[in-house]
Amino acid sequence: MTARLPSPVTLTGTHVRLEPLTDDHTADLFEAAGGDEEVWRWIPVPLPRTEQELREVNAARIADPRCLPFAVIHLATGRAVGVTCYFDFSAEDELLEIGGTWYGRPVWRSEVNTESKLLLLEHAFGDLGMGRVCWKTDHRNERSQNAIRRLGASYEGTFRRAKRRPDGSWRDTVWFSMLKDEWPAAKARLSGRLAAGRGTAGLSG
């Protein structure tokens, strides 16, 4: 199968629906996490303290040609509770990154992140024909690193002084990846966690 680039699509599971992010999601997303310093601590943008500031953050994601952002809709409420994205995709090299992920605190350690990642990974490996999916996060963000490891991703290394934080300090960036032939086993584990009602932590970064 020849890999193809991701394009806007809606991915639906039992607990969540991932749909293309639009300005219409802003009000829900601000209610979910606007101004929450803990949610935004590791996201590489200034903390959005108003709905308009969050609208600008979302607009930048939508306008970025290297990014395909999704609003995460919690089916139990019908409300947007977070955002997750595909980044830096290449059909020629059969790779993409999952990142820019955050959720409101009420859905941390719930089924939301687990099923969101199942949907994204299944689409990446199964529908798009990607051979590699990667994640990058701040070296101080241990919660995100642990959640990525629980997905079944492998630690690849740490890039020192790789990115400037919004406060001007420098972060080291921790890299993880999953390859296509590792996906079936990871999918089985994640599906088991979801069936057992065990979530992975709310990612950010």
Category by helix and strand content: alpha+beta
Helix content: 25-40%
* CATH T-level fold name: Aminopeptidase
Secondary-structure element series = EEHHHEEEHEHEEH
The assembly state of the depicted protein chains is single chain
User: What is the average per-residue confidence, as pLDDT, rounded to a whole number?
Assistant: 94
Number of strands: 8
**Fourth-level CATH superfamily:** Gcn5-related N-acetyltransferase (GNAT)
Q: What percent strand?
A: 25-35%
Summed up, the helix count is 6
Contiguous runs where pLDDT drops below 50 for at least 5 residues: none
Question: Which descriptors would you attach to this protein?
Answer:
205 residues; globular; Aminopeptidase; alpha+beta; eight-stranded mixed beta sheet; single chain; 6 helices
Explain what the structure shows.
- The chain has a single domain (11-195), classed as Aminopeptidase, CATH 3.40.630.30.
- It is 32% helix and 31% strand.
- The protein is built from 6 helices and 8 strands, in the order ββαααβββαβαββα.
- It has helices at 26-33, 37-40, 51-63, 111-127, 142-151, 183-195, and strands spanning 11-12, 16-20, 67-74, 79-90, 95-103, 132-138, 154-164, 170-179.
- Strands 1-2-3-4-5-6-8-7 form an 8-stranded mixed beta sheet, with helices on both faces.
- Helix 4 packs antiparallel against helix 6 (183-195).
- The mean pLDDT is 94.
